[in-house]
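go over both lines:
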Amino acid sequence: MNVLESVRIALRSLTANKLRAGLTMLGVIIGVAAVIALMSIGRGASAAISNQIQSIGTNLLFVRPGSSQTGGLRGAEGSAGTLTLEDGEALQNIEGIVAVAPEVNSFAQIVYQGNNTNARVLGVTAEFQDVSNFSPAAGEFISAANVTGKSLVACLGSVVAETLFPEQDPIGQTIRMNNVPFRVVCVMESKGGTGFLSQDNQVFIPITTAMTRLSRSGRFRGGNNVDTLNIKLADASMGDIVTEQVGEILRERHKVVEDDFSITSQEDILSAATAVTDTLTIFLGGIAAISLVVGGIGIMNIMLVSVTERTREIGIRKAVGAKRRDILMQFLTEATVLSVFGGLIGIALGWGIASAMGGISLGNTQITPVVDTSAIVIGVVFSILIGLFFGTYPAFRASALHPIEALRYE
């Protein structure tokens, strides 16, 4: 008996009990759909996070202070307060560096008339706009003159602007941060994001103003403390060379042998975030795959029932010359056909669920599920394997029946 004949007989046998075949396929359908949908959503979330990190800017290095130690206990990274505004100026002339943008950050209560919000406040220089690839949607960004003059001006993130000025143009208005008045000079373009990745729920002010009026930053070796030095490279391929030169200059300036700072590249952050989201995607796919096993058990159960119901049929086939391998192939084909049809329906259903989830936003970030060829291949392969694995025992049991005993079965 060839394969096509086995498939034809399998389809005829399955259509004789349409409801039972449909219910049997349901476990595989749900399992495959869950795997496709969850893996697609996981990959979409990974792509969204990657885009958010890349939207901060390109070819970037981040230099942060090291960890402080008190009583032998190491504090969090950045707690040492060992970076200064003057450190940033010393790095400007390194070959391969396009710009250095120091920043200090804090949080503040921001008020305009009856509206108020809590937001992150970044003290920055004029170079921050180019380094971070972050431009105003209206107005002009903080200038070098604003930094020199310690001006009380502010640029609002789009979310902050919408919260404080729902029906009004913010430009030229006066807001109060921690009871200090600031004139709004620009509103930044929207970049999306949620939680700590959101760049829209921030306010930007001159770094000198932040140091003197808000954060009251300390001093280190005669310089003004900063929280981060954002460095933009001419080319990402120069990252290792520039990192080494930055380290040498800072160690010399701080007069230390062991680094009291840390240097992280944008690629490092992206790799770490991708590793986390990939692990989460695999975890979600693994959980969904459990339902495939349940579906496979359902197939085995129904095939065992089918073997019992068709015992006389098996005896007649063996009596007229069917070999053991023919019976084995027939029942194995039926189990595989059930699983494959369920898998194909599951792929279509999973694709539909993933597409429907594409309209859901998390915060200001819209996740677009990624259904690629690999997900479809995984669905088809898993369906075939489930049919073969869970159909093997019933098929062997059917092929092992003795023809005389099968013909006597009532």
